[in-house]
Design brief:
Cation-dep_OMT; transferase; SAM-dependent_MTases_sf; 216 residues; Rossmann fold; methyltransferase
């Protein structure tokens, strides 16, 4: 058994890839409107993932003020397009400010205001490299089903808050959101068509690759 990571090492890892002024401003906007943005460690992981996949098409569920969206866009191909969905139109306005401040071309970020489970079914099957989910935790399982339809083979679905403030690992915690995230983790782990990993960055980042072949 390895020694658990100490808080100082966790903080060092979280801050290893520094955020610039644009991301700092976006994070401040998010706090002002009560949107909890992904942490720097999780954001860096998303950028790395988008870069490794050379992502051209990404769906984001939960726009916030554009923190995670900017991390993703900075890892995607220069011609890549982010489709970001949020029920709060004001959050999307703030995200567009963030993208503009970062010099992201307007045609690279498509914002759709609406409930995720109303919008996702309208998107194209098998078209996306990444589906990133950071919205209503109670709907995570439903987002997974939509993501598996939307992803191309080899694409990756990602869920933020997979540890949910240390509650998921504690079986005594039975509130609705914790149970939903715990069940999502079990569902992903037991799906033979997925290759999963749970990263202890930020509040937990659950990733799963859609295999090329169900038997792979």
């Amino acid at each position: 058994m390895t020694t658990p990571i100490k808080p100082t090492s966790w903080t060092y890892a979280e801050e290893y890839v520094a955020e610039d002024e644009v991301l700092a401003a976006a994070r401040a906007r998010a706090e002002e409107v009560g949107a909890v943005a992904i942490g720097p460690g999780g954001g860096a992981a998303l950028r790395f993932l988008a870069s490794v996949l050379e992502a051209r098409a990404v769906v984001e569920v939960g726009t916030g003020a554009g923190v995670s969206g900017l991390w993703l866009l900075r890892g995607m191909r220069s011609d890549g397009v982010l489709t970001t969905v949020d029920i709060e139109a004001e959050h999307q306005r703030l995200a567009r400010e963030t993208f503009n401040d970062a010099g992201i071309a307007a045609n690279r970020a498509r914002t759709i205001a609406g409930a995720a489970l109303d919008v996702l079914p309208r998107l194209t099957d098998g078209h996306y490299d990444i589906v990133f989910c950071d919205a209503d935790k109670r709907e995570y399982s439903a987002y997974l089903k939509e993501a598996l339809r939307l992803l191309r083979p080899g694409g990756v679905v990602a869920f933020d808050n997979a540890l949910w403030h240390d509650r998921v690992a504690d079986p005594a915690q039975r509130d609705e959101e914790t149970v939903a995230i715990r069940e999502l983790g079990r569902e992903v782990a037991e799906d033979d068509t997925l290759v999963p990993v749970l990263l202890p960055v930020g509040d937990g980042l659950l990733l799963a690759k859609k295999t090329w072949d169900p038997g792979a």
